[in-house]
């Protein structure tokens, strides 16, 4: 079925929300031939991960996706704009005026909430459940991404894993990539680490450890909060580079999403944060450390432990201990120097475990395909909005 979908995205933490929505939008268009309109309230952040976005245009077409600025009020809507599906992404809510407009259609559209990623067990029980709106005659369904086949799965484009594995096995292709993003000397370093993270007040101890270590390290930090903190610690980073002993620290401008995938595959270890980058780290097939989105009263700690419980199934005791130790120190913003030493001693086993986990996930259906199947099943069956 060639369906028309309106996807609403409110940009909350600069990049995670729009990152997920942009990947999903492109995949639904290219792999499932949907007609998709992405409503987004922050074109400036969007442009950081998709340079083709014109921040001066409120209605534009990029990569087959119609992109409209979510303003208040919305621009006038016509009959030609009516979707088969409304998709509210990541806890945002389409405007009430838009919902009222939907109810005026002779055939009511389907309405889904695409929820945040979680490994907690309750997600499987809530995935796909309906809910009637108390004031508007539309039925809403909850669609949960997740790490098991009882959930909606993870965003994974066709052939993505095999493409990244091929890059990992091809030093010439890696060198071409590094040159293209302005890090032409990357291959000379024994270990390359990408560091996409929230604030880390105790990070200087770890950097000193890397600088004094026996191996050369290239540490790549995307521009943002952590990069600004590092530049405050080290004034020489004002130009975007600092060399200290065995450590070369670089600040990277944000790159388009496809290049970020390649960056993760070309690095040896990836520190990732939030939702979009943790999913991409899985497909890169390299050891990763996930800094989960911080929530009040440390509610995110439960989500992190739920993930580790699933991720570490089958890991040897020493490997599990090393992973848990580094995750805990990193998440609690502690000095990770001792935990890093333990992690490095288990790195080969962690690499093998990461690939086993990746294989477990790739045996499951991807999020877009699960979403398409769910929507088509709901639209084929007559819907009752009473």
From TrEMBL:
One of its GO terms (molecular function) is translation elongation factor activity. Pfam families: EarP. It comes from the Bacteria. It catalyses: dTDP-beta-L-rhamnose + L-arginyl-[protein] = N(omega)-(alpha-L-rhamnosyl)-L-arginyl-[protein] + dTDP + H(+). InterPro entries: EarP. The keyword Glycosyltransferase applies. Keywords: Elongation factor, Glycosyltransferase, Protein biosynthesis, Transferase. The keyword Ion transport does not apply. Belongs to the glycosyltransferase 104 family. Protein-arginine rhamnosyltransferase that catalyzes the transfer of a single rhamnose to elongation factor P (EF-P) on 'Lys-32', a modification required for EF-P-dependent rescue of polyproline stalled ribosomes. This is Protein-arginine rhamnosyltransferase. It comes from Rheinheimera marina.
């Amino acid at each position: 079925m060639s369906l028309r979908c309106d996807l609403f995205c409110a940009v909350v933490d600069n990049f995670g929300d729009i990152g997920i929505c942009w990947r999903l939008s492109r995949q639904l268009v290219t792999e499932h031939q949907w007609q998709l309109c992405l409503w987004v309230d922050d074109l400036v952040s969007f442009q950081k991960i998709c340079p083709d976005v014109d921040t001066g245009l409120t209605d534009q077409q990029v990569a087959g996706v119609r992109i409209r600025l979510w303003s208040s009020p919305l621009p006038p809507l016509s009959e030609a704009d009516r979707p088969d599906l409304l998709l509210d992404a990541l806890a945002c809510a389409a405007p009430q005026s838009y919902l009222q407009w939907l109810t005026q259609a002779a055939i009511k559209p389907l309405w889904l909430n695409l929820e945040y990623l979680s490994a907690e067990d309750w997600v499987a029980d809530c995935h796909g459940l309906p809910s009637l709106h108390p004031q508007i005659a539309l039925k809403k369904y909850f669609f949960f991404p997740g790490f098991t086949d009882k959930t909606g799965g993870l965003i994974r484009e066709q052939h993505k894993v095999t493409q990244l594995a091929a890059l990992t096995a091809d030093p010439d292709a890696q060198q071409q990539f590094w040159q293209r993003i302005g890090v032409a000397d990357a291959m000379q370093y024994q270990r390359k680490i990408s560091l996409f993270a929230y604030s880390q007040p105790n990070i200087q101890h770890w950097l000193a450890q890397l600088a004094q270590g026996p191996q050369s390290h290239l540490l790549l930090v995307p521009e943002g909060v952590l990069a600004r903190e590092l530049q405050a610690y080290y004034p020489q980073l004002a130009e975007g580079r600092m060399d200290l002993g065995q450590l070369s620290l670089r600040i990277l401008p944000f790159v388009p999403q496809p290049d970020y995938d390649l960056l993760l595959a070309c690095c040896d270890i990836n520190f990732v944060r939030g939702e979009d980058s943790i999913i991409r780290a899985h497909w890169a097939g390299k050891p990763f450390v996930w800094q989960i989105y911080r929530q009040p009263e440390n509610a995110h700690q439960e989500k992190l432990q739920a993930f580790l419980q699933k991720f570490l199934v089958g890991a040897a005791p020493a490997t599990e201990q090393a992973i848990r130790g580094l995750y805990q120190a990193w998440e609690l913003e502690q000095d990770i120097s001792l935990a890093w030493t333990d992690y490095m001693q288990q790195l080969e086993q962690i690499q093998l475990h990461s690939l086993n986990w990746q294989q477990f996930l790739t045996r499951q259906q991807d999020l877009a395909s699960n979403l398409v199947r769910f929507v088509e099943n709901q639209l084929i069956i007559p819907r009752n909005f009473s």
